[in-house]
């Protein structure tokens, strides 16, 4: 294997061989959940209690456990990560006709959540090293396209207020948040973290999603831990937390029997049965993260010395959850990405490219954007490889 590893034309079979030595010869998915703890026990307990829906002790416990783990002062569970992000944006002040800076290199949910606020995604670039928002280019870009009017950052071309900036921690790798916080301060933007992929990732000791004014987590089936479908809003601000709870539960005023709702609210509350699963999953989180890190190390043994491939790795001062293991091909190799995908998928190993860039998707084609040089380059060179942690090689 090592003899061929520096030869470009052999890359597809090299990658295939590495995956085989690391995960074994059986077919594997990209990311499959594992239920090894109290999942069945809590689900059964939830069923027997009959509290399977929007109230119950597991929702409260899940929120408390999330606070304990992330050190967020408040966590509000939601039906999915997209709805959590929607609320996180509203709480951060995003309203109709605002623009919101988001990476084009992200899952569509980031742009959708902005659209749900009747706001407009404004796409910005990422850095090659973190795959997250590139604060240097964004700082310069804003100095060219915006001006401060009455304490608002106004896009001089569109006349719209740029309200917020939404760093997304790609595949669990932390964005350089200090740079983002400086942008937010100098340009008067609120920071909303899309931490959907980064439960278990820390930026200089702070959990992702707790650094901005609000943040959103996801517990979809393919994420680090799952509640089936689910998400959570994180914030350290008591007023925002109360408001999050209020508008995710139909904006109903607390009363024993009357149905008074003081605004148009959302039915975004996580059901108790999903939270039951989440409580058990959270108990396994440190074990899952340990296994993910050891999977990364196993891949690194093989990929670490190949000049045509970079195995994506956490930056100094940050801790990645290693949600999805990621190969970044050298520029010279982007033309063989699809062949690598072909060879590995034909062998039963689920691998896939990164998402289509959001600014190229039909609903977002007309949205404002900066130069997206790095995003466009990275999109052609990224391959996610099997990242589940249940495999026997780890035990
Ligand atoms: C998963 C994900 C979300 C939220 O997804 P849901 O499926 O709604 O839980 C949001 N943003 C990103 C970047 C994601 O990967």
Summarize the structure.
By secondary structure, this protein is an alpha+beta fold.
Bound molecules: pyridoxal-5'-phosphate
Q: Residue ranges: pLDDT <50 for 5 or more in a row?
A: 1-5
Q: Kindly state the mean pLDDT as a whole number?
A: 95
Secondary-structure element string: HHHEHEHEHEEEHEEEEEHHEEEHEHE
Number of strands: 16
Helix content: 25-40%
Shape label:
globular
Beta content comes to: 15-25%
Rg (CA only): 21 Å
* Largest sheet descriptor: 9 strands, mixed
Protein structure class: alpha+beta
End-to-end Cα distance, whole Å, is 25 Å
* Oligomeric status: single chain
Q: Enumerate how many helices there are, as a single number.
A: 11
Notable traits:
35% helix; 9-stranded mixed beta sheet; alpha+beta; binds pyridoxal-5'-phosphate; 16 strands; 11 helices; 395 residues; 4-stranded antiparallel beta sheet
Detailed description of the structure:
The chain has helices at 11-23, 39-49, 57-70, 81-91, 108-116, 135-145, 177-187, 238-248, 272-303, 337-346, 373-379; strands spanning 74-78, 99-103, 120-124, 146-149, 152-155, 161-165, 190-194, 202-203, 206-207, 214-218, 231-235, 309-311, 318-319, 325-329, 352-353, 382-385. The chain is α+β, with helices and mostly antiparallel strands and 395 residues long. Strands 1, 2, 3, 4, 5, 6, 7, 10 and 11 form a nine-stranded mixed beta sheet that branches. Strands 12-14-16-15 form a four-stranded antiparallel beta sheet, covered by helices on one side. Strand 5 and strand 6 (161-165) form a beta hairpin. Helix 3 runs parallel beside helix 9 and helix 6 packs parallel to helix 7. The radius of gyration is 21 Å and the shape is globular. Mean pLDDT is 95; it is low at 1-5. The structure holds pyridoxal-5'-phosphate. Pyridoxal-5'-phosphate (PLP) is lined by residues 80-82, 85, 106-107, 109-110, 168, 194, 196-197, 218, 220, 231.
């Amino acid at each position: 294997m090592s003899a061929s590893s520096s030869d470009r034309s052999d890359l597809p079979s090299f990658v295939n061989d590495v995956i085989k030595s690391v995960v074994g010869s059986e077919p594997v998915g990209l990311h499959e959940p594992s239920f090894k703890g109290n999942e069945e026990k809590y689900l059964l307990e939830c069923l027997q209690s009959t509290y399977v829906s929007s109230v119950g002790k597991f929702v409260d416990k899940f929120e408390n456990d999330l606070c304990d783990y992330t050190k967020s002062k408040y966590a509000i569970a939601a039906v999915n990560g997209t709805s959590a992000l929607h609320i996180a944006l509203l709480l951060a002040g995003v309203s109709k006709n605002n623009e919101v800076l988001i990476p084009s290199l992200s899952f569509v949910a980031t742009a959708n959540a902005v659209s749900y606020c009747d706001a407009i995604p404004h796409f910005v670039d990422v850095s090659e090293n973190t795959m997250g928002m590139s604060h240097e280019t964004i700082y310069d870009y804003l100095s060219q396209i915006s001006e401060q009017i009455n304490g608002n950052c106004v896009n001089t071309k569109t006349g719209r207020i740029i309200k917020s900036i939404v760093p997304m921690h790609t595949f669990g790798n932390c964005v350089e948040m200090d740079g983002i916080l400086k942008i937010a301060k100098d340009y008067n933007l609120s920071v909303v973290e899309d931490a959907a992929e980064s439960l278990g990732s820390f930026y200089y000791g702070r959990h992702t999603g707790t650094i901005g004014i609000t943040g959103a987590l996801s517990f979809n089936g393919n994420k680090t831990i799952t509640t089936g479908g689910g998400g959570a809003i994180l914030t350290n601000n008591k007023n925002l937390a109360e408001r999050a709870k209020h508008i995710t539960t139909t904006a109903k005023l607390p009363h024993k029997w009357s149905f008074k709702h003081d605004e148009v609210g959302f039915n975004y509350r996580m059901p108790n049965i999903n939270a039951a699963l989440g409580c058990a999953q959270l108990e396994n989180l440190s074990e899952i993260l340990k296994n993910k890190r050891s999977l990364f190390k196993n891949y690194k043994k093989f990929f670490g010395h190949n000049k045509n491939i970079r195995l994506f790795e956490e930056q100094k001062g940050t801790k990645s959850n290693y949600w999805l293991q990621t190969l970044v091909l050298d520029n010279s190799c982007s033309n063989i990405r699809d062949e690598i995908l072909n060879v590995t998928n034909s062998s039963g190993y689920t691998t896939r490219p990164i998402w289509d860039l959001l600014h190229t998707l039909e609903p977002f084609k007309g949205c404002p954007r900066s130069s997206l040089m790095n995003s466009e380059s990275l999109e052609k060179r990224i391959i996610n490889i099997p990242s589940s942690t249940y495999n026997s090689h780890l035990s």
